[in-house]
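$ ./design --mode recover --in tokens.txt
reading tokens...
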């Protein structure tokens, strides 16, 4: 073998190795979008039911995508089997088959804790790769270095989620979009915010202002409309019927060129939220039709 052919073979081998080591996650195809938005449900909306039933109900509501969360029971026939990133290859294939049956795409997973240790974190990213997810949702700020390393390797986005401000825990800062920005601004562009607009409302944060603060860093959204501002007494309502500024939020996401997923996380009427979830999807469909 000549020196030239040996060099060529080494280059080819190195290229193959790099391609194997760097896994590129699927982007969200247009067929899974409604008026340009990848719209569906956070499975937590149907947490009184199983993963299989959440898939069915999301499809019945007219959704195109679904975001899973850890710990939901798999199906009515296997209530003791929990769905999370520890799932076996057999269980993952069952879920993928169920998604295909209902023409849905899994796009996100969370809220899930991502450990600092790379082997533990990698298990979550491997799960995302196997499902072809667009993103992962977390609040594990302390693991940012590990997250950034794996985001670069897997090309899977990570959005930091916001729960409401905690009066008894001043160390909790995730509710503040300025804090989220401080965490992600110097990091890989695939790391940003999972914008939970309802929790911002509870915290007294204008969701449209928050989106503008985080411009270019919105990975995904848990989009909520609420009957009243703040707490107590608030609950989710169909889009466009409350104080959640849903039209203005959609306008802002459009302006920013947002290409992540919008999850309806409807935390009201738990046993029978399907009619209201369907209305939420209808609102977005009508919004996009009016824009045209």
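writing sequence...
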């Amino acid at each position: 073998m000549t020196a030239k052919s040996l060099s060529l073979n080494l280059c080819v081998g190195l290229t193959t190795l790099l391609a194997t080591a760097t896994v590129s996650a699927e982007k969200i195809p247009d067929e899974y979008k409604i008026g340009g938005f990848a719209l569906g449900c956070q499975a937590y909306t149907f947490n009184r039911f199983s993963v299989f039933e959440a898939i069915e109900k999301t499809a019945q509501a007219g959704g195109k995508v679904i975001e899973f969360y850890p710990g939901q029971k798999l199906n009515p026939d296997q209530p003791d089997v929990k769905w999370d990133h520890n799932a076996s290859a057999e269980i993952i294939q069952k879920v993928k088959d169920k998604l295909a049956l209902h023409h849905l795409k899994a796009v996100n997973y969370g809220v899930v804790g991502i450990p600092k240790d790379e082997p533990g974190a990698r298990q979550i990213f491997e799960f995302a790769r196997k499902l072809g997810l667009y993103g992962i949702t977390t609040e594990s700020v302390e693991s940012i270095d590990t997250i950034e390393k794996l985001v670069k390797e897997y090309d899977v986005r990570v959005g930091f989620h916001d729960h409401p401000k905690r009066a008894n825990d001043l160390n909790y800062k995730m509710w503040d979009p300025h804090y989220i920005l401080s965490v992600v601004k110097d990091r890989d562009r695939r790391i940003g915010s999972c914008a939970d607009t309802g929790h911002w409302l509870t915290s007294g944060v204008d969701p449209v202002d928050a989106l503008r603060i985080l411009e270019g860093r919105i990975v995904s959204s848990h989009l909520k409309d609420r009957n009243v501002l703040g707490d107590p007494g608030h609950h989710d309502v169909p889009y466009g019927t409350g104080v959640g500024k849903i039209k203005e939020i959609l306008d802002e996401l459009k302006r920013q060129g947002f290409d992540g997923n919008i999850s309806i996380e409807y935390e009201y009427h738990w046993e029978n939220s399907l009619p209201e979830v369907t209305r939420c999807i209808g609102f977005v469909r009508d919004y996009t039709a009016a824009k045209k």
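exit 0
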